[in-house]
Amino acid sequence: MTQALNMTSLTTPTTLKALSKAAVRAGMALFFLLATSLPLRAELLIRITEGVDSALPIAVVPFAESGAIPPGDTLADIVQSDLTMSSEFRTLPAEKMLSLPSQRSEVHFRDWRLLGQRYVLVGQLTRQGDRLEARYELFDVNREERILGESAGAPLGNLRTLAHYVSDRVYEAITGERGAFSTQLAYITRENVGDKVRYRLQVSDIDGKRSRVRLESAEPILSPAWSRDGSRLAYVSFETGKPAIYVHELASGKRTKIADFRGLNSAPAWSPDGKSLLMTLSKDGNADIYRMDLASRDLTKLTDHWAIETEATYSAGGDEIFFTSDRSGGPQIYRQKGKGEPRRMTFGSRYNARPRPDHKGEFVYYVHQRSSGFHIARTNLKSGEETVLTRTESDESPSVSPNGRMLIYATRQGGASVLTVISADGGAAYSLPATEGDVREPAWGPLPR
Amino acid sequence: MKFSVQSKAIAMLFSVGLIAGCSSTGDPMEDADFGSDVSAVDQQGGSTVYSDGTRDGVSSAQLSDEERMAAQQQSQQMALRDVTVFYFDFDTAEISAESRDVLVAHARYLSANPSMNARLEGHADDRGTSEYNLALGERRANAVQRFLIVNGASRGQLETISYGEEKPAVQGMSDSARSQNRRVELIFR
Amino acid sequence: MAFSVGLHLLILVIAISGWSWSSSNYEPPPRSISARLISPEPRPTPDVTEVDQPDEAEQRLVEDRKLLEQQRETEQQRKAEEQKKKQEADARVQQQAEQKREEQAQEKARAQAEKKTQAAEAAKLKADAEAKEQARQKTEQQAQRQLQEAKRKAEEQKQLEEQRKEAEAERQKREKEAQEQAEQKRVEAERKRQEAERRLREQNLKALAQQATDAEADQARKSQQAAAARAREAQMLTDAEKYQALIRDSLSRAWYPPSSATEETTARLQISLLPTGELVNVTLVRGSGNTAFDNSALSAVRSLNRYPVPKDRDTFDSYFRQFTIEFNPSRLR
């Protein structure tokens, strides 16, 4: 407050000087034009090309609440968890805060600076009947400036929806990139119930909360794939005793079996327009990649080789496909335009499989074997440079967040398969809460429309 | 796990002593890769003890030589056909030398019994990607199917399916567990 | 020549007007030189806080004034040089004039002598004619008067002869006197002239010698100063580089590049510091087009409590009072 006052009191007299200054400058400019023969010294320029590569400290202050707010995780809890999961942020525990402001006038920037915080999020959560209303402000501690000030509402039961939305807004204000905290995950759980195994297709928030079972079976379910509008899932289910590909409309629960050929029916992947699916079929005796038009069910065979071709996916632009083939002797990733000649793009080790491109077409992520085990790696499509992103030894099923900033994959923890989120460049890992049995085959849903 | 060890022990009981070098019918890699304290006993003591016992049990003098030979051959074939799981190395679909005799026995049996049908279930261990493993399991099942057809079985008797890494025989991430999961199972129906 | 003088005058006038004007408004001491105005940089964005603009203007004034001073010095030097040249030229002209004058005087003397000789000859011819006439008359009188006449004739002749001789002697004597006088004068004048000339030459030589000595001394002094300046400059540069690196490190540790940044994203900020290292002001000179990125840079700059700056005031003034920082994550990821 005092700072602001200082600023304004200082600014007023300067307006008078502006005119005279302009005149002086004009004179000087003329003078300098006449004196060009003099040697001149360039002004000092310092280039900063490196920055901090660790998480950005942010304080998410518990929101002031009014009205009867449902118990459970608070809005600030959820926002903290979201930001932490991105591994681009490091949040300050509430017990370390010197004060708990809920609006600008209560924010003492010096305190937050002393605590090493770069940003502070404050706000209020109010219940109005059966709705929740959040007012929130984000401050840059060093600049002592507000960079976000908004309000948002949601039905009473949707505190999480509201919180993820706030996380998205904060994330975007600071990073300039859309947040992906309001997106959904699809994954498969495998649980032993008595002497039987239960397979479940589930859809949840990206923090694993609010999960809902979409399909349950005694036989394996795998390879869930989101249509780009987020309305449908395609997956492989063995519910009839053999693998078949199904398309599942989430809103209605309506399922359609679209591929049930002899042999393999696997690895479905949506075209960008949602009108066709790539899939792996072995109806002709050998696993090859086909494209099926969903309306006509017409098939186009895209690869024709005695080796295994599978795990196809469209490039970000949809003009190319990436897939796995072991035609070189072991599984490697290839790219192919239409029915053209495939080009191998991984050479770093003897096992590279299941490519997944990001939304910008900058990287392709995949499973990569080294002597230390199976890791997630990515290749820069422009430079061809390969980076191994994970260090755990049984990493599978990479799936990139729709903003390209986070990566989820399945790994082993204490004998069971769990899901872990890392930043897309391999930053700190965040494990999703463990459930019973194995959690596998995560698929990151698209941004909400 | 107990079951699989038992079945193999029985298989050995029948086979050891009739075929030279038969004590290696069981997966030696599997045995070697069990917990270190157990494996030594299983491999050395176990097989030795059982084979001695087998020889004692079969060496009855009441049968003629021919009868004994036929009985021996039959029991040998039966013993072989008790083996219905075939193991593979990582990321391969090559049928091992140990599996070949057994598969030949199965092929002959199928050939002699055209009404019999069998299902070949291909599996992979948990390493690598699930969809590639699905294809790899299918490739293994197809390899076994081809071998059986070449040795007398007819295509119509055989059905293949791959479960990839979805249905492991043994839970766990040890080399032993994984070597038991890289398999094709032959199931008569 | 006239043009350059005019140009100098114009510069001087502008300089002087600049001086008096600026000193009426601000009175900071002269400071370092900068050339930023030659190619005017993009104007600060409109959200520039006015608080700190005076400082910038001051800085510029200060820089401008220093320039003016240098300009004036250069001009004085040039003037001195021209003076010297002029003196040399003058001396040369004077010498030429002197020579000419001498030649003229010699010519005059020769002409005078000639005239005198002619006059003497004329007088001699006249005298001859008179003598012939007298002789003819005498012959006539002789014829008329015979005896008396012969006697008187002889007497007269003798008298005339004497008179003539006398006159001649007189004339010759006068002539000789005049000649002697003229010669004396001439010699005297010549001596004086030569004396003057010698003195002038000596003066010139002395002046030249002095000038040479002065120039030498000046040169020595100047090169000494230049060497000192160079040494100082080098020292300042070394210091500047050191602190530049320190500032770079501090900012690299304080900057969290946002994930939306690419290798091409670049923002330029202008920083003003106090000699204590405290930040006076930061302005976004050239934004990256990515608000989050620009904010991250501004935030990093604002996050340092104190900038590492050299204690030496000149170095600080030259490099760190105001400088530019460019944020570009070219080596990131």
Beta-strand residue percentage of chain C: 5-15%
Number of domains of chain C: 2
DSSP summary, beta strand count of chain C:
3
Mind describing the biggest β-sheet of chain C? 3 strands, antiparallel
Q: What is the number of strand segments of chain A?
A: 31
Class by alpha and beta content of chain C: mainly alpha
The pLDDT mean of chain C sits at: 77
Pattern of helices and strands of chain C:
HHEEHHE
Helical/strand content category of chain A:
mainly beta
Strand content of chain A: 35-45%
| Total count of helical runs of at least 4 residues of chain A | 5
What is the CATH class designation of the largest domain in chain A? Mainly Beta
User: What distance separates the N and C termini of chain C?
Assistant: 63 Å
What would the principal axes of the Cα set say about the shape of chain C?
A: rod-shaped
**Which overall shape of chain A is indicated by the principal axes computed on the Cα atoms?**
globular
Please name the fourth-level CATH homologous superfamily of the largest domain in chain A.
TolB, C-terminal domain
* CATH fold description of the largest domain in chain A: Neuraminidase
Largest interface: A-C, 51 and 73 residues
Q: So what's the oligomer here? A: heterotrimer
- SS element count, helices of chain C: 4
Question: What's the structural blueprint in terms of helices and strands?
Answer:
The complex is a heterotrimer of chains A (449), B (189) and C (333).
Chain A: H1 2-11, H2 14-34, E1 45-48, E2 56-60, E3 64-66, H3 75-85, E4 89-91, H4 109-114, E5 119-128, E6 131-140, E7 145-155, H5 159-175, E8 184-193, E9 196-205, E10 212-217, E11 221-226, E12 232-237, E13 244-249, E14 255-259, E15 265-270, E16 276-281, E17 288-293, E18 299-301, E19 309-314, E20 321-325, E21 332-336, E22 343-344, E23 352-357, E24 363-370, E25 373-380, E26 386-388, E27 396-400, E28 406-413, E29 416-423, E30 430-431, E31 438-444
Parallel strand pairs in A: 2-4, 2-5, 3-5
Antiparallel strand pairs in A: 5-6, 6-7, 8-9, 8-31, 9-10, 11-12, 12-13, 13-14, 15-16, 16-17, 17-18, 19-20, 20-21, 21-22, 23-24, 24-25, 25-26, 27-28, 28-29, 29-30
Helix pairs in contact in A: 3-5
Chain B: H1 2-15, H2 28-32, H3 36-58, H4 65-81, E1 85-87, H5 97-112, E2 118-123, H6 130-150, E3 158-164, H7 175-181, E4 183-188
Parallel strand pairs in B: 2-3
Antiparallel strand pairs in B: 1-4, 2-4
Chain C: H1 2-25, H2 53-254, E1 267-273, E2 279-286, H3 291-303, H4 313-320, E3 322-327
Helix pairs in contact in C: 1-2, 2-4
